[in-house]
Amino acid sequence: MCAFNLNMRRLVASPWNFPYLRLFQHGGKVYSRNIIMHDSKNLMQLEGEQRMVKRNASHATSNRTQIASKISIMGKLKFVIPLGIGVSLIAFFQWRHLRKSRHTSDGEVVQGPLNDFIVNCYCCLPLRITSRIWGWIANREVPISLRPGIYQCYAKLFNADLEEVAGDLSGFPTLVDFFVRPLKEEARPIAKNSNMVSPSDGTVLHFGPVTSCRVEQVKGMTYDLRHFLGDEDPKRSKERVTYTEEDNKTYVKSLLKNADNQLYQVTVYLAPGDYHRFHSPTDWEIKSRKHFQGKLLSVNPKIASFLPDLFSINERVVYIGEWSEGFMAYAAVGATNVGSIKIYCDKELTTNKIIWPKMKRWEDASLNCTHISKGQLFGEFRMGSTIVLLFEAPKDYQFCLNIGQTIKVGQALSHYVVQSDEKYEPKSL
């Protein structure tokens, strides 16, 4: 039949050389042209109808398959969606429970399993690389015509006060130069009714006496004082060392020059819009410096409120010395996007550079009892960060601060005035 159809199609398509009917013989029968044409058309129409039926059947089968697949997927989602929602709710309530109920040991806030996981994940982020990239961008020279507009937009975004800036905005070649902008002389008067003044502009995160090695970085979250100052035995630091409460109190007392005094701390956070230079809080002399490379995690109060040991994890520079009442430590803590920390009296200091070997924990340097006077310029951040003061003072020392308070350089931390015959002569920087 197929051969017959093919022959008929070829015959119909071939040219006819004669006007009269042409005969075609197949299987002993004779067909005329009209009969062949009629039968061919009928067969072609029949084949078309058959193809249409097959196509409709194919579409119907495909639709049934798709519908069955969708029903199968919906059947699976019927169990997957409630299961996913249930697991998410359990994780959320567990996270909220762990945040509310801190892990404690002898009344001190310590790190728990959830916090360990968060810290490890956060530390894996390439924050040092991004900080270097941001530092490189911030050090690119801005066209003079664009400087005022860019700096004004930045000031509006981060609430920086441009009226106290010394000089014209077009005089700052780069964004970094604007970050560490000098202020007018009368912009930051130094309080005379206190021996201890604010070292920087910023927000007071915490202040008060230090009675243990777990020191508050913000309310409800602490950092380890031994780790922060680097007073750990390198041989024992490879293993997790557990100190008793008595060990912690003994260590804090060992820092004091006068056993009748108390150790205090003040933590000030510098936001991106703040004045980024920091000053000396009192007349004192620096004996040594410890530079810890650490991480470059954000020190924003919202981050510090759930990341324990943040200050002792981050890169920091700690200057240790004495003031008229005894022990004093001045720490500049690095953070994300802080290109570098510059200390004017420490020319050898280099921060946010090549990663140290794993066994190297800090770099020591002696400053040969460098004398710094109250209110004197001490250093600068290349972005927002944190200053931590640890100092010894009498037990009746009273702060005139509030947590969350905005503070300026030179503002009194206390109205307590120490009477001392010893005078420190400032060293020119």
From TrEMBL:
Enzyme nomenclature, EC number: 4.1.1.65
Chain segments annotated as coiled-coil in the UniProt record: none
EC category: lyase
Annotated organism of origin: Polistes dominula
Keyword tRNA-binding: no
Function of the protein: Catalyzes the formation of phosphatidylethanolamine (PtdEtn) from phosphatidylserine (PtdSer). Plays a central role in phospholipid metabolism and in the interorganelle trafficking of phosphatidylserine. May be involved in lipid droplet biogenesis at the endoplasmic reticulum membrane.
Pfam families in UniProt: PS_Dcarbxylase (PF02666)
Cofactor requirement: pyruvate
TM spans (from-to): 77-95
PANTHER family linked to this entry: PHOSPHATIDYLSERINE DECARBOXYLASE, PHOSPHATIDYLSERINE DECARBOXYLASE PROENZYME, MITOCHONDRIAL
Pathway the protein acts in: Phospholipid metabolism; phosphatidylethanolamine biosynthesis; Lipid metabolism
Keywords: Decarboxylase, Lipid biosynthesis, Lipid metabolism, Lyase, Membrane, Phospholipid biosynthesis, Phospholipid metabolism, Pyruvate, Transmembrane, Transmembrane helix
Gene that specifies this protein: LOC107069266
Alphabetized InterPro entries for the sequence: PS_Dcarbxylase, PSD-B
Protein name: phosphatidylserine decarboxylase
